[in-house]
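Batch manifest, entry 17 of 40.
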Amino acid sequence: MPKIQCSECADTLLPVRDALDVISGKWKLQVIIAIAAGNQRFTEIERSIPGITPKVLNKELKDLEQHYLIKRQVLDTYPVMISYQLTRHAKTLDAVIHMLRDWGKQHRNHIKKQYQQT
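Output type: C-alpha cells
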C-alpha cells in the first residue's frame, strides 16, 4: 500500500469506514454469503449459519435491506412465503468477499507457522 499523505487520510478512511459500517460484525457477511449460495428463505438462511439466532438474523436481514444489499420479497401464496435475494449492489461485494477469504487463508497459515516456530 503506497504511503498516504495526511491530507489524503480522510479521503481514504471515510469510504473504508462507510464500507465497514455496512458489512462489519459477526453475521452480515455470513448472511450475504448464505443468500448468494442459494438460501433464500429465512429458515434456510438460519440453518446455513451455525450459531445465529432468529432474532439476530431478523435484525441483520433488516439492516442489509436498509442498505439495499438484499431484497425482501413477499410471495402471494398460502401460507405466505418470504424470500430474500441479493441486489445488484450486493453482488459488487463478490471481489471483496473473495479477497477477504484469500487473505483469511493466508493469515491463518501465517499464524500457524508462527505458532509452530515457538
